[in-house]
Amino acid sequence: MRRGSLERQLIICEKPSAAEKIAFALGGAGVRRSRRGKVPVYRFELEGKEVTVVPSIGHLYAAAQQGPGWSFPMFSLVWAPIHEVERRASGSRAWIRAISDLAAQADSFVSACDLDTEGSLIAYMILLHACRGADSRARRMRFSTLTRQDLQAAYAGMTSTLDYGAAEAGKARHELDWIFGVNVSRALMDSYSRTGSSFEVLSAGRVQSPVLYALAKREAAIRLHLPDPFWLIGAEAEVGGGIVQARLRGGKVLSKREGEEIASRCSGAKAVVSRITEREVVIPPPFPFDLGTLQSEASRIFGFHPSRTQKIAEKLYLEALISYPRTASQKIPPSINCVQILRGLAGSDYYREMAEEILASGRTRPREGKKSDPAHPAIHPTGALPRSIGRDEGKVYDLVVKRFLAAFGEAAVQAQATIELECSSGDVFVADGKATKEDGWTRFYKPYAFLKEALLPKASVGDGAKILTAWAEGRFTAPPPRFTASSAIRFMERNGLGTKSTRAEVLDTLYRRGYIDGWKISVTELGFGVTRILKKFFPDLVSIELTRRLEEEIEGIGSGERRATEVVLKGIDLAKGVCEKMIDKYEEVGDELSKVVRKLREERRTLGPCPECKSGMLIITHSRKSGKRFVGCNNYKNGCRVTMPLPQRGRITPSKSTCKVCGYPIIEVRGFGKRPWRLCVNNRCGSKGSWQRGSGKAGSEDGAE
Amino acid sequence: MGRSRDPGSPAMGACAVCGSPSGGSLCARHAKAARKIEAHFATWRERAGVEWEEYLRRVSENDLSGAWIKETAEYLLRSGMRFGQISKP
Lengths: 705, 89
Ligand SMILES: [Zn+2]
Ligand SMILES: [Zn+2]
Fold this sequence. Notes:
The structure holds 2 protein chains of 2 kinds. The longest helix of chain A is centred in the first third of the chain and has 30 residues, at about 165-195. Chain A is an alpha+beta fold. Helices cover about 40% and strands about 20% of the residues of chain A. Chain A is built from 21 helices and 24 strands. In chain A, α1 packs across α5 (about 150-155), α10 (about 305-320) crosses α13 and α16 packs antiparallel against α20 (about 585-605). By secondary structure, chain B is mainly alpha-helical. Chain B has a domain at about 30-80. Chain B has helices at about 30-50, 50-60, 65-80. The interface of A and B includes residues 229 and 257 of A. The complex binds zinc ion (2 copies). One zinc ion binds near residues 20, 26 and 30 of chain B.
């Protein structure tokens, strides 16, 4: 290695793919690649400096307990190498060593991690620990895209110090999450172990718990929904030489008898056009995407889970195709050269026509939304075109590009009309129509948006008409909708729970712990049980208010309004208060927990209703003599003698579906290292052969949800 | 075929619908559901002109009914419990 009087500068990046982009953007053809173990290293000369670019792999340090052992309460935490804290992070040891070695030879340091609290914290911890206090000598590159132009500008304009505010805010958030998570989870487990059993790992968290509580509340409302009947009166009418669909003005009819009376007196009745309304509806173009809106659009259109969309968008960012996706902004500041981006997009056969139309129109500023973000603009394409792109990446990329283009479009205009038809009985029916006058921005956002049309015949007030037929349609009041992952994320956003980069992760944790389930989220018995206990004994922990206040204070650290120590101490006080409140009620908590666990075990061994006696439940039982497991009906005492053998190996779980052939429950068997297979528990069923062979096919089934 | 539980005299401390531990004859969830079923009967009778048993049947068969409502309505049907007879825990 060349050593001379050149200043040696170490640039630390968040991920390997970002490091490669940054190195080549700054060093061009002069970049020399090498490796330290598995860690890629890039070197080049720049402005009289010998520059080394090295990536991290996300966080290399994490909050951990100070000292060994299990104790509660626990407020002493240290920041330790993540491989000492999490078993699955064992690979990060090599990265710390490589960065440490490189730091020993460096004179100056630059953080080029993602520009948000997480990225700032990642760099800060690496500089502080792996680079032995180099944070005080480090500078910060600030960029929102990984394009050459932005990176060169970020290097030229880097700040003279680290962004300590953001790093401290990130650090405080991690510490508070750790303090709440560890203490509340340990309090739960401690009280539970005093009932003489230890079984489920129970956990609760600062953001996780209020979210779970909200989901459980919704679930209970759905399960307790009692639909009330009402009726809508529909009609088919002849007017202006055409046939239209119409509905009774005034909405619901609250009695069946009344509904039927209206329908019968209007069927075949003569009517006159009593009123015509017309208005123009202007539909303005959409804003460019913030992360939450991108996630909910990708969920609506492609059915992508929000965490999947986020991962794909991050990948597109690392490929320099779009700007940094973890943003709350719906704005494109004037510093971003939209004309250049549009010209870039015009280089693609697919986007050329649209991009050129916008360029020719002279509209070079997009419509913007209200939300902003101190660090990043709205998600937008960089203008670079993908050389090859995966299927899912292609979908999200296209959505981002078209949304960006749509934001430059003109408003769409629709004419909305209604024709009112009055019968001699006084009943008034209304027919609605819509016709598109200008398709505006929707042209750019196809196939993700389209304008619905329903044309009405020409008519004037006083024209004769006829109700050809009218009917009363029975309806019921509907339960509140289930949350989906994307509506749950919007709920968190509205209530200030979590941050744009952590929300999808919080939901993933709830799924992983078995508290929630399904694309349309349902809360499991375990989720209900934990929520009930938290609500009863840790009411502050499930309160949206507390979490939001704390989150605001953390943001205050980033903007310099609050000191990190002050916020963390406040959080410790809150966590202490939460734990103190329950200490007196330890026994009660333990009892409640064992009830939850008992219920959970019950749920795990209950297969479904017994098709023989129709009132018992089929339960997985163990024989007292042989210890073998089998299925029996719990209606045994009243004479139901249904029993059936079970496979003795593997983990059995109820599937909640039944066999199409015989109506018995289907179970899922998970062998060790084998694919799970499903089978009908009925050993006399036609689909049965399959289970003895263990082929994994359990005949046909229905109701598999 | 017999029944697992005689609805007239549910096992002490077990919910007659789901068997989970409870203070009265129904657990908190199913007691709440039962109260709701009673409360909505007047609306149904007025709007749809149905009597108690038919009401329970329709509610238990309606896809929009919540799971706890359905289970409780089925239980009330099975047990032949009359309106106003549901014991409050
Ligand atoms: Zn079968
Ligand atoms: Zn119950």
